[in-house]
Amino acid sequence: MPLIPISTRFWSQISAVLCTLVLLLPAPSKAAVVRIKDITDMEGVRSNQLIGYGLVVGLNGTGDRLTNSIFTRETLISMLNRLGVNIRDQETQLQTHDVAAVMVTADLPAFEHGGNRIDVTVSAAGDSSSLTGGTLLVTPLMAADGEVYAVAQGSLATNAFSTRGAAASITRNVPTSGHIANGGVVEREVPFDLSHRTSLHMSLRNPDLTTATRIAAVINQTLGPIATVQDPRTLLIALTSRDPVATLSRIGDLLVQPDNPAKVIVDEASGTIIMGADVRISTVAVAQGNLTVQVTETPQVSQPGPFSNGQTAVVPRTNINVDTGKNHHLAVMQGGTTLRELVAGLNSLGVGPRDMISILQAIKADGALQADLEMR
């Protein structure tokens, strides 16, 4: 059996982290049951991303510097010209600091109709220091096809502030990005006829063949043989001679127990380890014999005797401790060990998160970890 290094200096570090992980795990006897609509999406039913470019006005001297942000200057001049204000001859004297060029983004949800309102996000595109207190002027929002689907306008809410003094400054949150609730008006709809569909594909957000089979079984048991599994992600729902809206509504409320593959996710940069409940390991022995050398310098001052001709001197003092790991232990994990047993065993050994990463990598390399190890 392979020997994998563990140091006793980590024996007490893992308690809080791993105990918290165990508490977050569901009890084995209580399997998670969820609604089908919470783990699936319907084909063609999705949101669309919108984007636009506009101007924010009314800033308190925190806007773009027109000498640096040429696009802000040209946009402002073009807008004023369209409004009947001609300043082309005096554009060199345009020095306002209350205007900022911004990028406006929004998500157009499915089944939105003309006149409905959506939320928009506004972000500075120039060198503006804050958008707090600004107002977005009418901005068309386009989709990937170049067509305008919404128009945005309104007062920004940044939930941030920034102030500066002669020697210090303070900033809370991000003052160069704001939000306008219901700030966009839908002008064009994305057509999707659900009521006349004779079939529909249902897609699992986490592809798994067992989960897809369970979903099909629950649907067919409740509504008849209308669901067919095509692959681990996709199910075909036959809607012939049925009301599609009512059928999909009933399907969405059905309960199913999803199955997740055994996986261990490791973020080596932060030392974070996430393990699924179905993780198993084969019989493996774990041990460590680190050599630790600790050198401590404690200089001391030597004073001469009273009325003597001696001089004060600094005398070095060095203390060296060597730990050869003679008190370290060998731990044996039996085959079929569950996540709870693995956590309890490593917890009793006092293994820290970062050392556990090395252990998991070594166990996976040995072939004893019966799970997918994903390093990030």
From TrEMBL:
<keyword id="KW-0732">Signal</keyword>
<dbReference type="Pfam" id="PF02119">
    <property type="entry name" value="FlgI"/>
</dbReference>
<dbReference type="InterPro" id="IPR001782">
    <property type="entry name" value="Flag_FlgI"/>
</dbReference>
<dbReference type="GO" id="GO:0009428">
    <property type="term" value="C:bacterial-type flagellum basal body, distal rod, P ring"/>
</dbReference>
<keyword id="KW-0969">Cilium</keyword>
<keyword id="KW-0975">Bacterial flagellum</keyword>
<keyword id="KW-0282">Flagellum</keyword>
<protein>
    <recommendedName>
        <fullName>Flagellar P-ring protein</fullName>
    </recommendedName>
</protein>
<comment type="function">
    <text>Assembles around the rod to form the L-ring and probably protects the motor/basal body from shearing forces during rotation.</text>
</comment>
<comment type="similarity">
    <text>Belongs to the FlgI family.</text>
</comment>
<dbReference type="GO" id="GO:0030288">
    <property type="term" value="C:outer membrane-bounded periplasmic space"/>
</dbReference>
<keyword id="KW-0574">Periplasm</keyword>
<keyword id="KW-0966">Cell projection</keyword>
<dbReference type="GO" id="GO:0071973">
    <property type="term" value="P:bacterial-type flagellum-dependent cell motility"/>
</dbReference>
<comment type="subunit">
    <text>The basal body constitutes a major portion of the flagellar organelle and consists of four rings (L,P,S, and M) mounted on a central rod.</text>
</comment>
<dbReference type="GO" id="GO:0005198">
    <property type="term" value="F:structural molecule activity"/>
</dbReference>
